[in-house]
Hints:
Low-confidence stretches: none
CATH architecture of the largest domain: Orthogonal Bundle
Number of helices: 4
CATH topology of the largest domain: Helix Hairpins
Strand order of the largest sheet: 2-1-4-3
Largest sheet: 4 strands, mixed
Shape: rod-shaped
Strand content: 5-15%
Helix content: over 70%
Number of domains: 2
Radius of gyration: 40 Å
Number of strands: 4
Amino acid sequence: xxxxxxxxxxxxxxxxxxxxxxxxxxxxxxILAALERKRVTNKENLETVRVGLQxxxxxxxxRDQDLETGIQxxxxxxxxxxxxxxxxxxxxxxxxxxxxxxxxxAIEDDILGLMEKIDAAAAxxxxxxxxxxxxxxxxxxxxxxxxxxxAKVAEELTAAEQEKKExxxxxxxxxxxxxxxxxxxxxxxxxxxxxxxxxSGCFMSIPPQVYVNVKxxxxxxxxxxxxxxxxxxx
Length: 234
């Protein structure tokens, strides 16, 4: 096989690795950002449950105060019954006492409901805290794995780039420049195999005589359709 063509094939293999390593490297920040968003969401969920508990506790304190005020009101009303001089006023007072007691009963029901909410929120906090701890540990482990993988990819990328530099030094400048332009404009694939009288880059047919020349692997020949450099494996 013509030496320059052989070097280009090896360069393409290296550049394919470089492209894959670069994609992995570029994906890492988004992967880590997604993990951090997950961690933040877990904390927000936990905070939401905590706020729910605090709200229920405050509401209960408020209703406890309302009940205390209502009890005192009933006591004051009952104390005044001894001062009443006629039956009409006495009946009116009884109705007022009954209404106050009914209101207190409604407050007590509210307090019972709030106590149930507090118990449920406390249990939810326990579960949320446990889940948050487990999620944080899992996220930290996953971050560590990705960071270790990133370090390995960076190492392999540096090695591949150095390998390309050494290989490129053996390619004629004009040929290398042509290869680089194709690499940039053809989605990272500058040289492809010709198979069955077709280009494996664009999958279009290659003219018979061109295909015959490609099979010789004696010169730089490009696909008439996509302009990628062609070679034949045999």
